[in-house]
Amino acid sequence: MAQNYKALDSITISDIVSLGISQEEAEQLQEKLTEIIHTCGAATPQTWQNISKQLLNPDLPFSFHQMMYHGCYKDFGPNPPAWLPDPNNAKLTNVGQLLESRGKEFLGSKYRDPISSFSDFQEFSVSNPEVYWKAIFDEMNISFSVSPERILVENSSCPGGQWLPGAYINPAKNCLNVNKKRNLDDVVILWRDEGDDELPLQKMTLMELRSRVWLVAYALERLELDKGSAIAIDMPMDAHSVVIYLAIVLAGYVVVSIADSFAPSEISTRLELSNAKAIFTQDLILRGDRKIPLYSRVVDAQAPMAIVIPTRDSSFSMKLRAGDISWQDFLNRAEGSNCFYCCNCREVEFVAVEQPIKAFTNILFSSGTTGDPKAIPWTVSTPLKAAADGWCHMDIREGDIVSWPTNLGWMMGPWLVYASLLNSASMALYNGSPLGSGFAKFIQDAKVTMLGVIPSIVRTWKTKNSTASYDWSSIRCFGSTGEASSVDEYLWLMGRACYKPVIEYCGGTEIGGGFISGSLVQPQCLAAFSTAAMGCSLFILGEDGYPLPSNVAGTGELALGPTMFGASSTLLNADHNEVYFKGMPVWNGKVLRRHGDVFERTFKGYYHAHGRADDTMNLGGIKVSSVEIERICNAVDGNIVETAAVGVPPPGGGPERLAIAVVFKDPDSSTTDINTLMQSFNSALQKKLNPLFKVSNIIPLPSLPRTATNKVMRRVLRQQFTQGENSRL
């Protein structure tokens, strides 16, 4: 794309005016540009760094931002840096401060400074887990009721090793602790309801959060469920659901995470797989003027006992099922208080249930290739991995305000809870759609310092210009996960916050965080990863199935080093070893762990994601198996023999689009209208699977490509559709 732009030293005033900029302003911009070129040259990273800091602002047309970026890097080649770390600021990051105080202890004479030595530190985190993780736990003020005997014990019977043997801890208690970085009066949650854009932000201090979590924990005990019982949450992510989440974990139960967008059949599947004994839900979800039923979906799912919260604290007249409990009646079970929002409550502290390190705290779900979601338990160690990623890669620290539009049904919901609270930061929650200007104003008013996104949200902001006139200068970095991103959309995003970096973050529910990311002490490129996550090692498998040398560029299926702190070691409904380790190569005496994504490693050391290697795709940040989609599509029309669902990346990069290959019974005489069929597919998928799913293209085929064992070769279809995407999609 850069080839379509002029080099910076060829840009004229008339070129700038052609973008809708006045003659006077164009002359001023051109003069500043000339000064920067004179100082830094016309095509260096320092040129772009100065342009982004001194010349560009969110009010200038984005086309001018593109002219500057692509003009600067016209002949640079792949992975031009969109952001460079400042040496002084790098020393102020979490990682920078740790390295400045202990870098020589960790790395010896190799240590120079946080920027130069970060790659060595990442390798150190893998090769010296005892020292590294002890240091991180100390930095995050993690408190064990019984300290671990050691950090890691490796043995052949457990490929992932045994982490923190002998330790007891309660991660929710750690979220509520006072420490040297946080006191009781610090604000820990800020929120606003959609439509209340002109009202002050609502806030909750640590004292208030503790009080409310304790109250719910006491009420939970009155339900007389066995300790370790699974309790589901199917709610929007708001202050209520965060309190409930922490209370379940504090009291020694296990959260079952269910997304509030799921249809009854999907809710039912997750309740059955987890053997949930109760569920917290809400009567309705408000989105603008729409009222979306939620409790009725839970009822249709034949859920166990439900505790039903009224939307935005209003009373409701909805008739509950026999055995279900209203929120207020539930709270009244906690003796001594029935006031959830009383700041002056003086409840007795709830004594946290300290758990052994392998105890479950959360059951989440990720789609596999069998058509059933994998039920993935998080242990008490997984929250520490999530928080450590936030500490190391997003630089979340005391006083920060973290916002990430998500839901407790997806791993980024619990990740947000732990990455903010365990790092003495605040979380900012918007009770409504994140797509409009109301959310943009909320980010401004809350003075968010770390904003997490998925690319499809950014695309909508850019298309609708939702962020116009709002000041996002408080943002120190963005985080991005869930989907592949595109260069120009994320160039636009950086420009909304005066060119703060985007930290790409990829991992999985079964990892509890990321295996690959970025860092504020490394140059960051758009739509690229700059480093393996701390404590993780990455391998690109060649055509022979074995890892390519670590310094060689290449593309292939990604494998992971097996010893990753916080990663899963069991599944509730599948053989963990078979899913993640069976058939994987042995490297340096260790069997590698399967992940399933195809990655490219460039000659400059950056990484690019290229989608799934198996039959799972990623739609709008939601992993879903092809089998789930095909099962629904096959039943839509009697003239369909079979279908194959694949995710196809658009030519310019970005989230996958859903394409369906269809084999008709009689293709020559088929009267099925493709547009009508697409509407039927979308209606069925949105009703039975997820309302966010949308078919972008239908491709009739005489037959599906198959292996010798009759397995559909979806990877072949994906490749064919990707090559023909410009003409088909």
From TrEMBL:
What lineage does the source organism belong to? Answer: Eukaryota, Viridiplantae, Streptophyta, Embryophyta, Tracheophyta
This protein's UniProt keywords: Membrane, Phenylpropanoid metabolism, Transmembrane, Transmembrane helix
Q: Which PROSITE patterns match?
A: AMP_BINDING
- Pathways per UniProt: Phytoalexin biosynthesis; 3,4',5-trihydroxystilbene biosynthesis; 3,4',5-trihydroxystilbene from trans-4-coumarate: step 1/2
Q: What residue stretches are annotated with the AMP-dependent synthetase/ligase domain?
A: 202-559
Gene3D superfamilies noted in UniProt: 3.30.300.30, N-terminal domain of ligase-like (3.40.50.12780)
Manganese is among the record's keywords: no
Instruction: Give a yes or no for keyword Glycoprotein in this entry.
Output: no
Which Pfam families did the record assign? AMP-binding
Q: Which residues cross the membrane?
A: 242-263
- Write down what this protein is called: Probable acyl-activating enzyme 17, peroxisomal isoform X1
